[in-house]
Amino acid sequence: MKDYDQYEVRKYVIGGLVLLSAFIVIIKLFVIQVVDKSYQLSASNNVLRYIPQYPARGLIFDRNHKLIVSNEAAYDLMVIPSQVTAFDTTEFCNILGVTTEEVENGIRKAADYSELKASVLVKQLSARTYARFSEKMFKFPGFYVQPRTIRYYNYFVAPHMLGYVGEVTESIIKKDPYYNMGDYIGVSGIEKTYEKVLRGEKGVNIYLVDVHNRIKGAYKNGRYDTAAVVGKNLVASFDKDLQEYGEYLMHNKVGSIVAIEPATGEVLCMVSSPGYNPSLLVGRDRTKYFPALIKDTLKPLFNRAVMASYPPGSTFKVVNALIGLQERVIFPSSTYGCAPGYYAPGVYVGCHIHRTPLNLKGAIQNSCNAYFCHVFRNILDNPHYPSIYQSFESWRHYLESFGLGHRLGIDLPNELSGFLPDTSYYDRYYHKNGWSSLTLISMAIGQGELGLTPLQMANLAATIANRGYFYTPHVVKAIEGNLTIDPAFRLKHKVAVDSSNFRIVIDGMDLVVNGEPGTGSTARIARIDGIRVCGKTGTAQNPHGKDHSIFMAFAPKDNPKIAVSVYVENGGFGSTYAAPIASLIIEKYLRGKITRKWLEERMRNTDLIHGLQKK
Known about the structure:
- By secondary structure, this protein is an alpha+beta fold.
- It has 3 domains: 2-36; 52-233, Penicillin-binding protein 2a (Domain 2), CATH 3.90.1310.10; 240-293 and 302-613, 3-Layer(aba) Sandwich (Beta-lactamase).
- The strands form 7 sheets. Strands 2, 3, 4, 5, 10 and 16 form a 6-stranded mixed β-sheet that branches. It has a 5-stranded antiparallel β-sheet with strand order 12-11-20-19-18, sandwiched between helices.
- The longest helix is centred in the N-terminal third of the chain and has 34 residues, at 2-35.
- The protein is elongated and about 115 Å long.
């Protein structure tokens, strides 16, 4: 009886184990077939080929709707290693303009990746090369061509604003699943900032393939194919003709020009010199030219307009004047003498010879260093504040309200903030309570630790033109489909100085350009008959060579249409190169033509890079 009970128990245990195993198998099959899609995907990948359809990038127009950047057809030559048979490599290479080594290495790498899947062998064939190859493609089984578009430049202007397109990296693919290896993305300029608007959306065509990965037809008659969505067009803010002219004037010079429309903050031109031909970074030629541009010691890829920081020099005097007026430590009638220069215990700041004493307008007109040393010390030694720490922070707050010391927020990548020191900076160098207004006296005339970008300088000119406010500078005016640009570009930024204080400073800037001969005007060369230009010269000390030539201006004086800053590295006095170039830019924009051909020719023919002046 016991033996019977033992066998009976075993029967139930074995039966239970069989049922449990069957249940586990059923659950696993359910998971594989219904829940887990990976096996289905793997099976689909064995019989389906997904060929992406690349959209054309959006077009870019200038503010007058001239087409600047468009697209042209290009073709990637694909290879499926398992389908390649013996072929005439000499003929193949001659058609494509590649070497035998490149082809052999490319096929080997493709085979290492997958014998059955397609890989890119030669990128971005031109339409002409594709036409030649397509006639003889039947001789080369295992190869096919995949179309795409590449950028085409109708005008070789504004490379730093427009930017360029390059192949995605692995890090980009990890961050954004939209991109796959071999895709292209905006790398700099507008192309980068507005990448998601310009790129459009990829489509896909799905094909049935056999065990050898050969296409047998469209899957489900194309029911699941998706069409590519073309990118949206952009209207840039810059004027093509003005941009072209600025680049013409800056030929053989190092520096930048930035021009802004004060009423909107739209950038009218942005020149960084030396520049480069944007078409060099398109197609297969990019691999040849990009390394050369990177190695060039003049840094043609570097956008000096937003990425370089310079001392503002005497252009900064007008800011100290405005702060002094707001703080009521000077008045339009305040008068100071010049010896020539400013003297204080252990300190001397030199100045050029001019009539003396001067009131505020005369000091701006003559760019008197001594006058603005007095102004600066009045601001920092103001008895209204308990210590220099409070007065310095108040002074710094004014500067920040003008957009100095921080990024303005332009819609271009890699904008620099410039440099505006704080009290902790001086404490590190001179210890707590170890510095005074005399210690910082060089900032009275825009020297010392101050650093401004050319964009910030142009925005400063626009702020003065507007009598106390500015709009964030931007390089895109409109997006196709009535899409609005960033609302931040419509926001008015008011500075911490009352608008009533700007009149006297603007009158002084008027005299800088339009003062009578012999009255000390530092930029009479910038005068334009019939256009009232207001400006301020600057000469920034350069420890590495000749001083930098600086000028900022706006015009007309009433209802200004353009504000501009010009930096010419190693150009000497502001009136030598920066002021004439700014004046020509203003005349070109407001009149569309140049009447002072002699000045234009002098600026164009001056070579500051090679140390020559062409005759």
